[in-house]
Structures are given as C-alpha cells and as structure tokens.
Design brief:
The protein is mainly alpha-helical and 473 residues long. The protein starts with 13 loop residues before the first helix and ends in a 13-residue tail after the last helix. 77% of the residues lie in helices and 0% in strands. The N terminus is likely disordered. The chain has 17 helices and no strands.
Length: 473
Amino acid sequence: MSVPGVAEEVEVDARAWLTLVIAATAGFMVALEITIISVAFPQIREAFPTSSPATLSWIFTAYNIGVAALLLLAGSLADRVGRRPVFITGLAVFALGSAGSGLAPTAELVIASRVVQSVGGALLFPSGLALVLDAFPPSRRQTAVGVWGATSGLAAAIGPSLGSVLVQAFGWRAVFLINVPVAIVAVAVGLRFLPRPPRAVEAARTDRVAVPFASLSVGCLILAITQAESSGWASPTIVATLAAGVGCMAFFLWRSTRHPVPLFDLGLFRLRSYAAANAAAFIFAVAFFDWLVLLPTYLQRVWGWSVLEAGFAIAPSPLLSALLAPISGRIADRFGARPLLVLCGVSGAAGMTAHLLFTGLTPSLVAGVLVPGLLMGVCSANGFSLIVGAAMRDVPPHRFGMAGAGRTTVFQLATAVGIAVGAAIAGRERAPAEWLDAFQVSWVLALVLMLLLAVSMFVAYPAGPMRHGVPGR
C-alpha cells in the first residue's frame, strides 16, 4: 500500500548501477583534477625553473577555465549527438590530456595538455549525468545522483590529501598519470556495457553563433576572478576581461531568447525546481570552497601542521559526506529534496559557528577541526549531490545534457568565486592573531550564506517527491 506524499520503490536493473559506477568514476577524475594539482606545484616549479610563476599558474588555471567554458557546448552535444558517444569521447580525450600532462618535458606542453584534459572533462560532466538520469526511473534518481555527486564532492575535498601522498611517493607527474589507466578501463567497460539511450533530433540546427560567445563569457569571467588576487581588481587587464565576459554573456543570453534551437534553453529557469536548486548551488559552492581552500592554510600557517597532517585532519569531512550522500538521495526519493536542502544550509551554518567558537590559535583537533568538519560533511553530503538531483528533478529527458551543463556551469562559476575569496584572504603573510581575525571574517561570511541557503530553499523549492515523473507541489 502506498503512503500519500511518498514515492514508491521501483526495481533498478544491474546495468543502471554499472552505468552509475562508470559515470561516477569519470566524475571523480574530473573533479579531482581541480584540487589535486595544488600540492604538486612546489615540485613543478623545481622541474621547470626557467618558467615564470605567471606561466606556471596556467597549469592550474587552463584546466578550470577550459572545463567551465566548454560545458554548455558539451551539454548540447550530449543531447544532440548522444550521451554515450560524447561520454566515451570525453574519457579518451581526458586520458590523452592526462598522459600528455604527466609526460610533458616543458611547462608549455604541460599547459597545452591541460587544455586537452579540460576538453575531456567538459565532455564527461553533462553526458555522464545524463546517462545516469536516463538509466534510473524518476523515483530513484535522487539516490543515483546522490552517489554520482558524492564522488565528485569527495574528489574535490580529498584532492590535496591524495595529491600529497602521490607527490611524496612518485613525484608530481603521478597526479596526472594516475588518471590514464582508470580512463582506459572506463572506456573499455563503457563500450561494452553503457546503454544507448535515444537522442532527440532537433528539427533545426542548434545556434552555432552563440557557441563562441558562451565559451568566451564563462572563460573570461573565471579568468578575471582567478587572476584578480595577483593583478588587482582595478587592473586594466582584469577590468577589460570582466567587461568582455559580461558583454559576451549579455549577447549570449539575448541570442538564446531569439533562436529557435538555442545552445541553452533559458526556459529551463521557468522550472521552479531548476531555478531554486541552481541558486542553492551557487550559494553553497561559494561558501564551501571559501571554507575548503582556507582551512588547510590555517592549519599549516597558524598551527604549524604539515601538508599531510592538515590533509588527513580534514579527511573525515569528505568521508562522512560520501557515506551520507546515498542515504540522503534515498530520503529525497521518498519524501522530497526540500527538507534535506534546508538541512544542508543549517548544518553548514552550524559548522561555521563551531569554527567561530572553538577554532583558535591553540591547536585543537577535535573541537577546532573534527566537529566543524563533520558538520560540513553533513552539509556537503546534500550540497554536492542532492542539489544536482534537485535541479534536474523536473527537467524533460531530452534536455538532460543541456540542463546538466547549465547547472555545472553555475557551480563552476561559484567555485571560482569561493576560491577567489579564499585566495584573497590567504594571499599575504600575517601574524597568527591576524590570521585568526581574517579567517573569522570568512567563517562569518560562510555562516550568512549557509543560513541564506536554508531559508531560500524552505521558501522557494517545491515540496514533495517525484511520483512517476509527476512533480511535487
């Protein structure tokens, strides 16, 4: 007997779960590359002593910009060409870029290979999410997306810790080369087992004029955000880059409202669940990455811990997140996402409050790191995974790739903002007491954002679960 307001359980076949494993593995690799590279930079600088710091910084920046700039195009391709071929191609390109990055004899070739790697990463995100959504019935999608999103969040969070181990054991090239065998195996398994879901064939061609403007707008915005700390927000270069990004974005949005087959359908934002969840994703990412970027810096510079000590002290947070995310997905499948989205904000605010109360100048592993970290683990269990499923809840299947790419683009922009806020605080040396003051400002900012997330989701996100494809209230 069914319970009113509660979605019924539906059996899922083994191929759907295998699709999830393959897509989650790819998502893990792509997200890992965003943060794992940070700990390899000292060795990379030693390997290329004649390269300037500005040149070497592009090893990090080129990948982030490339992924974000190409997501909308990749999502459109996944819907038009097919999710499976785009995903397999993305794996192959990502493996090629990873091999090139790990074997490159010069810094310039590392940067070029990172660009190739970013193309593969951009292809993998929307196509992988669309494959998962195609494989699972509506009543089980939150569970599936919970696992898919949790692996990406786990990868981003443990990147510095895993990178430290790899660099110490095998050198900096290992942070790239580790992807190659994983991607090759994923290609082989994917070719054998990934389903071939039908694709929608548009009557008219997708707007090609919008493609470069979409990529340039996102690329310029992220470039300006990431470079502003070193160049200054008033720098003519930064101002010009921001202006170019805003101008290209304005043209892209104008074009999207007028073309019969836009690169991105702005009508998706008329879906209440999609609009509200994207707002939540932006708020969450700014707050979370501001916290994640700064905490290792605090543990090392104020408490004097090593990179490995700081990495392993933070590790319980992403591990708890990975354990809770599938459970949150099952709860959302049965009762709806809104209560858990509110919990995301409340637990994040509690984590920041714990930092403000217990994290001081004297090292305190339990009260100063573990307690706030576990609260942030509860927050990220819903923030990284549940918000993805919440955004895609009412999206029609033929728009899965496009909608997923739009959601990820919003998240990438927010991530860049969060990292920029953290970099602005951590960018100069301070006395320990000044460090504490600066970090408390960042924790207050994150606290306010998390409370805003909780309130906005309680007010704006639809109540109730999906019932056989029918939206909740």
